[in-house]
Amino acid sequence: MTLRAGVLAVQGDVSEHAEAVKSAAETHGEGVDVVEIREAGLVPECDVLLLPGGESTTISRLIHREGIAPEIREHVAADNPVLATCAGLIVAARDAGDERVDTLDLLDITVERNAFGRQKDSFEAPLSVDGLDDPFQAVFIRAPVISSVGDADVLATWEDRPVAVKDGPVVGTSFHPELTGDHRIHDLAFFE
To answer: Is 46 assigned a catalytic role?
Structure first.
């Protein structure tokens, strides 16, 4: 079977996410065709979606302007998986804590943008993630904090703050799993 993975390609770590989902699929004996999504009409053809990091206000503006936002909501309503990382998490949240971000309301969470600090405050941390046997070495870059959680399940915390959640078919992380060479978060989002 060949999976069709759509990576929102208006900004962010597109190629890194493409490689991570390919590696995750390979461990399950599946192939993946990666589609870079920059315009409406492509999301309905995808089995899974990735919403990468970048700048959340820009991502939000572009997906709404290009007509991609309603397609992402329909994808989730059909119970198809999504992995939203860093700025993707902010855009997927119910409340971005910033009126400039028109969210998708896919994750029942409130976030605080850049709460872990600026670029110079980037760090790595070993996380215990529900569903993974061994710690995941997470990379935090200008990362948002999940300040409150509604009906979403918390998958991981750092310093008593949620940094990974799951709400229905959507997994969201404050960190960048695509930058680690460890594809287990992609595996958890799409193949578990």
So the answer is: no
Contact of 24 with 186, CB cutoff 8 Å: yes
The catalytic residue among 16, 46, 75, 178 is 178
CA distance 60 to 4: 23
Residue-wise pLDDT for 39-83, tens only, equals 999 999 999 999 998 889 999 999 999 999 999 999 999 999 999
Go through the domains of the chain in sequence order and give each one's CATH number.
Answer: 2-190 (3.40.50.880)
Alpha-carbon separation of residue 133 from 111, 117, 119, 184 (angstroms): 27, 29, 30, 10
Which among 46, 75, 86, 186 is annotated as catalytic? Answer: 86
Which band of pLDDT confidence, cut at 50, 70 and 90, is reported for residue 118? low
75 counts as catalytic: no
